[in-house]
Design goal:
The chain is of the alpha/beta class. Helices cover about 35% and strands about 15% of the residues. A 7-stranded mixed sheet has the order 1-9-8-5-4-2-3, sandwiched between helices. Helix 1 packs antiparallel against helix 8 (about 260-270) and helix 2 (about 60-70) packs parallel to helix 8.
Amino acid sequence: MSTTNTAPSLSKAARLAIDGGTPVRPAGKKIPLISAKLDRTDIDAAIAVLESGMLRAGPRAAEFEKQFAAKTEAAHALTCANGTCALQLAYLAALHLPAQGAREEVEVIVPSWTYIATASMLVACGITPVFCECDPETYTIDAEDAATKISHKTRAIAATHLYGNPVDIDAVQALAQKHDLRVVYDAAQSHFATWKGRGLGAFGDAVTYSFYATKNLATGEGGMVTTNSPEVARAMGLLRSHGETEKYLHETVGFNYRMTDIEAAIGLSQLQRADQFTGARRANAKKLDALVTEIDGLHAPKTTPGGEHAFHLYQIRMDETAFSCSRDEFIKALEAEGVNCGVHYPKPLHFQPAFSQYATQKYPISERLARELFCVAVHPSLTDADIADLGEALRKVADAYRK
């Protein structure tokens, strides 16, 4: 779509690339939104498992659980097939529900502003999701709005540590304690974020993680659930592997949600460099903050007070009242300048057709974020030159479209 009609007249030097100007980055040199790489140690770790013949869940998975639990300050950790399975296991175990059966009388409060799996696995478990609003500054669950959604059917709160940013854990835990609710935290995007100096695994009834290929710690697929309850850990262990207590003896109905030792070996290898990766993300985010805060109409991400962000994604909010274009037109222009962007997410959950029966009201903050938020690169592979170019492209496009 041409932007000639909405952008003001510019000099040739400042003309947007989408309108025929010179891009900030030359063709073929775009700044990637995500950089998923395995180094030699990761590859060698996987090869060692392949050569051993132990392809299923085995000693590598057990060691990954042990080390991940320690890293996140949880008492127990269980590997599983992916982050979506992790949520299903966590919901069933934390709420003490069997794998099968209808439970229309069970409700769980979940923010409308999160990835679909946080809510879809509630529905998959036969649980009714009750949507609430998010905080307009941190984009994580608004505990005050969540409080207004509690009914006699409410059994738990599902809260997402979104983009790498921890939720206000104190507020969520206080609300849960007041109403005797369970709390499941979705940390699929927030490996190694912290709350008041402690790992996220120290809090709640269960915390779920994803190791999908684009995540801060990536094994291709795979997931983890941490908990501090031995009862919840045992229940998840049964659910993860057909309810089996010993070979061909099944205490309950369960699933096959195990992780392979190949994935676990890669995870263990990457875990040794987790501090390095996370530090690089935080350093890059700090540099981006300095650039974005100088551009009128754009807003850098805000970390929840008390938390330390892990920066899976660097989300920028474009104040729609400050520009003569939409967010989508803005990022098309950025893409033309050589900056890959992402939209996480184009629709809040209450606008998703899959949840139409649960969408009982509007959530204006979530709806505004769906129009205004976009993400740019913050991964460890960024160079200072990349960040400088990213900042230049942001300023160039913002100056072109600012009212």
